[in-house]
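Reproducibility note. Readers wishing to regenerate the assembly model reported in the main text can use the exact inputs given here. Chain order matters: entities are listed in the order in which they were concatenated for prediction.
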Amino acid sequence: MRYRYIGVISGKGTNGGLFADALRGLAFDATDRLYAVGDSKLVVFSPQGKLLRSRRTERPGHSVAVAADGTVYVGQPGQVQLFDPDGKLLDTWRDAGRLGLVTAIGFVDDYVLLADAKDRCIRRYDQGGKFLNEIGNDNRMRGFLIPNKHLDFVVDPQGVIHACNPGKHRIERYTSAGKLLGHWGRFDGRDPAGFSGCCNPTNITLNRQGHVVVAVKAGPRAKVYSADGKLLAVMGEDDLDPLCKNTDVAVDSRGRIYVIDTARLHICVFAPDITTQPAEPNADETVKP
Amino acid sequence: MKDKPTRREVLGHAVRGATLVGLGGLGFYLIRKANGEGVWQIDCEKCVNSRLGAVGVEVCDYCATSCVLGLSAVRAVNDYSICGRCYICPAYFDIKSAVNEEGLPSQKLCPRDAIDRKPIGWVDPDDPANNYYEYAIDENLCNGCGKCVMACKEPAGLNSIRLVVRYDLCLDCNRCTIAIACPDEAYERKPLSEDEGVG
Ligand code: SF4
Ligand code: SF4
Ligand code: SF4
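Running the prediction on these inputs yields the following structure tokens for the assembly.
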């Protein structure tokens, strides 16, 4: 299975679709429009990578996600802002005590999951912004081990949370009630199938086949694993700036992988090489908890 | 007349002598600080081993090899307020070495074995990754070679280790041989008030 680098979206600068100081979070909506946050900006690109619109966020965005109804959530220090699909501000959830630094957002059933990198855990809220429970801190380290102060997770179609625990070089799976279901991943500085350095992987998403896509730092690259942790593909080793870290990843409906270059402030796009891809998933091929 | 000193007495004299030299150096340092005098210091933002952005480059070991002292006056210092207390520290382990049966890198990075790794608190034998670890640098062994400083640099680490000149060891040479050798002009004589005071 291979991916090839096909180009970049956005970049450093001061125009609408460009970022001056930081580019941190990526997400797709159901129609493959790409949402990117950084600086104090929410930027939307067409599926072809064309700038559609850009608007200010109250504070610097660290994460973004689009709910099934099209509501766009932007995670920020101390709060989350909610926008409608046209970019109109709907609500701001302020909870400095529980939303110290929101670095990932996901949805399960009718609930919203928010990763707080400050408290090193994930929190579940109802759709009105009412806090319900915590995930990932019922252990003796009282949370995920994230020396980079970045916590990322993704939710699969069965509602299972897959979260990076980079200090343990693992991906951990949780229920939304906070029960640890299992984990995979190991340290290895030589074998590309392992996670190297002090703390990897830092970022995670899933593709439509249920494969786990992660980003790692030092040297930065993205990797694709089967649901049970078998390495399938590596990309970006020559395309990402060596200084990149906490590089968010997203996958569109075509299976293209989008990786933020946090140093050059652009988004690298990698397309599956169709001659090496497995067939489309059938009904049996789903992510199992 | 007293017989030859015992081994215990010799050791006692040696320890007291070293303490007095150390206290003398410290006293001298405090007097110079009070007088606002300049001393040799390392600018971490210039030194290639700690300068952010300089990745994939060779470690500079001139601080270890250019000092007039047999064991350089420069030491590595770990700033605990920054250190992530990681299970696998790239400054302690040679993270490119083969993984051993415990799942850890099989070799250490420091050529002088000057870094000590200790778990903080109780370790779960079934999951030793589920813990924080303290990394302490033994200044009696460290020669300031800079390897750990480079390995702890962002993005691989958190930049918690840096090189500092120990004033109680430095002879305050007029023409510091490290300053002459330093390729980055990071070795500077600056007023003590600008001392970063790490460690
Ligand atoms: S500077 Fe060199 S000798 Fe000192 S602790 Fe670091 S690696 Fe070891
Ligand atoms: S001034 Fe002399 S003793 Fe001090 S670091 Fe430089 S060469 Fe070494
Ligand atoms: S000689 Fe200069 S660049 Fe080299 S380690 Fe010392 S301060 Fe850093």
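We highlight two features of this model. Chain A touches chain B at residues 139-141, 145, 147-148, 167-170, 186-191, 194, 196-199, 217-218, 220, 242-245 (CB under 8 Å). DSSP finds no helices and 24 strands in chain A.
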